[in-house]
């Protein structure tokens, strides 16, 4: 490496030219590096054309210093080794060229594409070359200054390459984080959709299943009493009409929660503990004697928790109505406090599977749906036959603390 090698093109001008060429022509990195080699090779050959006529071997040294840079991105350490070996041959043959800038570019490439250990190794090799170069070709009174200046240039090339590698790694990590965040966002959206679908399915099951069960029971009673007691038949048909209208009202109310332009959502709030009496009247009219025992003030209970209590009682009574024989009695007990709401629904019917479908298959969704509703408030729903098969019991205790409200 010559002590006074002229720089034909400044680094900034060279970099801007390469970026412009790559942006214009959409060149590959290898093609850009080939252009870089051409920009360095041709002017240098023109400058030393007189020396080339006297010493043709100089052309081989020039090619060894510059041509390997075409592959500096693919194999930066190997390219640096090839350029350094050529520079060492140049020092042995005592040939001074103005193309030793290839060593700086090779060191920059090692720093930009290799780890720190390889960068330090390449820097140490280059520093040895700098010392040999200065001792051989620098003036006696300028050896130290030459070593310092060339070392500063090598350090600058290594630092620039290291910064480029660090920035590339940072951008890669940012891109990876953006991809992971986008994937997590999509997963959260899918989970939210699944939760919303499950909630809609529970609401629709409670509305449709309960009201249809009541209407079927009333219709069966009306058919049975149509000749013996016309007045009872008329009352049953009127109750069927009221139940159907109630089902439509519940459906509109639920749709009003989903649609902002549904006016019935303002006129018909979601049912709560106050509507348990009308629910009990409805199942009584369907033929299930029901006793409601409610204690405590329900006003501190949130609307969402009251809806959960209503749906639990509704589903439990619907199962009793569907799966127990005539003459079964039911009792609903609701205890309200500032900390929790306790719900207990019992009946004295036969201890059959209350979560089975009409054909006896255990594929119903009533009890699992109740468990999901209770779990939103940190409660564990208990559903099963009473001791000695004397009836069925459904009970849950909904916590009204911060955890339960947040889960809901």
CATH-wise, what's the superfamily of the domain at 274-408? Histidine kinase-like ATPase, C-terminal domain
- Which architecture of the domain at 274-408 does the CATH hierarchy give at level 2? 2-Layer Sandwich
Give the helix level as a range of percent.
Answer: 55-70%
In whole angstroms, the N-to-C terminal distance is 74 Å
Number of helical stretches of at least 4 residues = 14
**Which percent band covers the strand fraction?**
5-15%
**Global outline:** rod-shaped
Q: Give the averaged pLDDT, no decimals.
A: 78
Text of the CATH class of the domain at 274-408: Alpha Beta
Topology:
Blueprint: H1 11-25, H2 29-47, H3 49-54, H4 57-66, H5 76-92, H6 101-113, H7 116-137, H8 143-225, H9 230-258, H10 264-267, H11 276-285, E1 290-295, H12 303-323, E2 330-336, E3 340-347, H13 366-375, E4 382-385, E5 392-399, H14 402-407
Helix pairs in contact: 1-2, 2-4, 4-5, 5-6, 5-7, 6-7, 6-8, 7-8, 8-9, 8-12, 12-13
How would you concisely characterize the structure shown here?
The protein has 408 residues and is of the alpha+beta class.
